[in-house]
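User: I'm designing a mutation panel for Protein kinase domain-containing protein and want to avoid disrupting the core. Could you give me a predicted structure to guide residue selection? Please restate the sequence first so the numbering is unambiguous.

Assistant: Good idea. Sequence first, for numbering, then the predicted structure tokens:
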Amino acid sequence: MDDSNDLLEKANEYAASNRISLEENLLGFGQDGSVYRSSRDTAVKSFYRERNYFTERDCYFRLMDLDWISVGDFTIPRFVNHDDELMIVEMNIVSPPYLIDFGKAHLDRRPDFSDEVMDDYYREREELFEPDQWPIVLEAVSDLESIGIYYLDLRPSNVRFRES
């Protein structure tokens, strides 16, 4: 069985145990896993790897414990449910402007990269955003760091601005 079939199988098992169904079309997919829309209009994210699953789950726990529903100008999904065995996180679906996808974050410790590597990362990521957007993105990153979440997946698909 290939990885994408395994993700769908786990998502369907989660859906059945929670008395929901999943739409056929994906909401999203990437290096961490696949995201499906549920019949209760939530996003069900199925993960490939434990590290990404537990990091994302724990980021949502942190955000939920602090009652954070936004980071700066960006809405963040509200945590709905999870399944550690199946490596599933269920969250509400958000519209732009939003910040999503915490699977590559680091919790309570800065990433173990040199300053030079981090500077290169930020320079590279800055080019993906409009010049007037970048300071807003950095402010959101700083806000997350203030609560011990070091966000490392800066790209327009994850940090989306309102369409003008």
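For picking mutation sites, this is relevant: The domain at 3-160 is CATH 3.30.200.20 (Phosphorylase Kinase; domain 1). The chain is about 35% helix and 25% strand.
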